[in-house]
Every structure is written in structure tokens, then in C-alpha cells.
Amino acid sequence: MLNKTLVPQSVAREIQAMIQAGQLKAGEKIPSQREFSQRFGISRASLREALLTLETLGLLKTEAGRGTYVAAIDATAGQAGHMAPWRYSESHSVFDVFQTRILLEGEIARLSAGRLSQTQLEKMEKATKTMEDCWANQDLLANVEADLAFHGTIVSACSNTMLKALYQTVRDQVTETQRQPIPITDPERMRQSIAEHRRIIAALKANDGALARVEMESHIRNTARCAGLQP
User: Fold this and answer.
1) What is the DSSP string of the chain?
2) Residue ranges of the HTH gntR-type domain (predicted)?
3) Which of 39, 51, 57, 62 has the fewest C-beta atoms lying within 10 Å of its C-beta?
């Protein structure tokens, strides 16, 4: 049985496949939450989480008073060209989350240097290649999942258990910042992001904590800039 985290992701993947296959067309209103939840055999809460994920990725768009529609894709960029509203605005701004990521993940990368096993380094390399391949196929969900796996592997090797715990407390917000810029990410920025991942891996392989921190901070700043921010 799927856990409560995997259920929305599994359903989001199915809906993304329906969009890619043309079963749900650009500009078309998606079925009601009641119909969709019955079709997939899940709760409305899990369905809403799946729909929010797809909206953040730019595959769906909700219009007040009208409902949720399949977003039109920019044929040139391959993306929807707009970002969804920041879903955590009542607690923290997206700027604050990016700024916190720079501080937290930069230090985590520094402390993880020299602690990653060969298996973990290979996992990060595989995740980066998966990001590249899935972007080419416009499998946006798998692209972001691979990105999350990359960053999560570094966190798992951190020597400071309190920093690891702090990361877990903000993981939902961090995850959202990794999804948020996707609709306005052009192919060149994705190529740069993948290259940044490979530089982080190289620094970690070399056991160079100072460089790993610099590369991670630069990577997160560049992602923030893609979202129109200057943290």
C-alpha cells in the first residue's frame, strides 16, 4: 500500500501522463475533484495535493470561480511561462525560503564533503542524468523527483544531526522552491542547473568542503534568479 506521501505523487504522475497523451488537452477543464478522486480511489486531500504539485509545475492552472484547466504550453520554451501562486505565503515568503536554503544547504554541503560513499556519489550522478533525460522528455515530475533525490543524498551525509533535522522541518517549503521555477525555466537554464549539480559532485568527490559550499550556494542563488529573485 502506498504511503500518504507517495499517493499524491503517483496520482500526479498519472494525470501528467494523461496530459502528455492528449487525453487532457490544453485549455480543457479537468474533471471535478469528486470524479477524479473516485477514478483514482483516493481521498480528496491526496488529490488536491497532486493537483497543487501539477499546478506548481505549470501543467495545470486554476482560475478563481471557474475551475482548474490544463495549461497551454509555450511551444518555443516548452513551458507554460507563468509561475503558480506561492502556496506557503501565509507563513514564509519564497524569498525567505531561498535565502534559508542558501545558508542551510551551503553548510550541509560543506559538512558532507568527505562523508559521501561511492554509492551515494553514484546515486547523485544518476539523479543528475535522470534530470537531464526527463527534461528532454518533459517528464517534469520525474525531473523534480531526481532533483530532490540529489539534494537529499547530500543532506543524508551531513555530520551535523541538528542541521539535518532543521532541513527536514522545512523540507516541504524547500521542495516547493525546487518546483516553483519549472514553468519559466528555459532549456539553457536547465543545462546550467545540471552543470552546477556536476560541479557540486566534483567538489564533494574531491573532499573539498569549502568549494562544495560555494558551488551549492551559487546553484541555489541561480535557481532563485530563475524565479525572479535576488537573495
Assistant:
1) ---TTHHHHHHHHHHHHHHHTTSS-TTPBPPPHHHHHHHHT--HHHHHHHHHHHHHTTSEEEETTTEEEEPPP-TTTSS-S-PPPPTTTTT--HHHHHHHHHHHHHHHHHHHTTT--HHHHHHHHHHHHHHHHHHHTT-HHHHHHHHHHHHHHHHHT-S-HHHHHHHHHTHHHHHHHHHTTGGG--HHHHHHHHHHHHHHHHHHHTT-HHHHHHHHHHHHHHHHHHTT---
2) 5-73
3) 39
